[in-house]
Write a structure and sequence with these properties.
Structural class: alpha+beta
Number of helices: 8
Amino acid sequence: MRPDDWHLTVDVDDFLARAGDFLRSRPALHTIPLTVTETLRTRGADTYGTEAPIFGWLERAGEVSAAFFRTPPRRLILTPLTLDEANSLAAHLAGLSPLLPGVTADHDTATAFAEAWGQRTGATPTLHERERLYRLGTLTPPEPLPEGRGRVACEHDRKQLITWYREFVDAIGAVGPADPGSWADTRIAYGRVTLWENVDGTPVSMAGVTPMVAGQIRVAPVYTPAHLRGRGYAGAATVEVSRAALAAGAADVLLFADLANPTSNGLYQRIGYRPVTDFAVYDFSRAA
């Protein structure tokens, strides 16, 4: 495989014009590129930061068979690749710049690319996290549900959403948006965060969803403050947004769970989510 089989662009519309059908052909496995490119398409290229995103696809004989993107300073995101494709992409990207913070992909792809990147650049890959992608089967609310009710977040909840989203990003070690207020405003405007509140009306947990793209909606983020965990609030909020996603017509309702957290993985399976595949997240140290 030649490195020049890979094509790059900084324009999301160009990327989707060439690779969009490929991404929509496997919406569950491609949920991250589908949802991120939809956000960039509708909200602008600077949504995730001031540095331009980069997109790419593998094309041979006129057919797209793989794709990737990156929204700096975040990690590279890959669709499933063969070993040869991972090696080819590492060679292509290393020729452009040897600096890359990490990679996220299905487990085999991420591992193959991390090894190839280390060989090409001298960087040391370190496994940051293992995640499991789940798809909703039959929604099964826990019994009993905690006291309280679910409701869609409104403008009155803006400050709470900003605080909780910052805490969520810190807890998972991610790079959040430059403007958490804009994150909250968009989700309030489109009703994409549900709060679980206790009997006195105090919010105790939140669950968000991505826009529907290619028939799939992903539940993210799910967050409960540490001092309120273990009471069923996250499960109740997740059931509420999952039910709403089904009512909106989603063919697939998806979510990711950190495999290092058996509590959340057990919870999601109890309410009806079934494993699809495992993902891996690697960090790359800079070469000496």
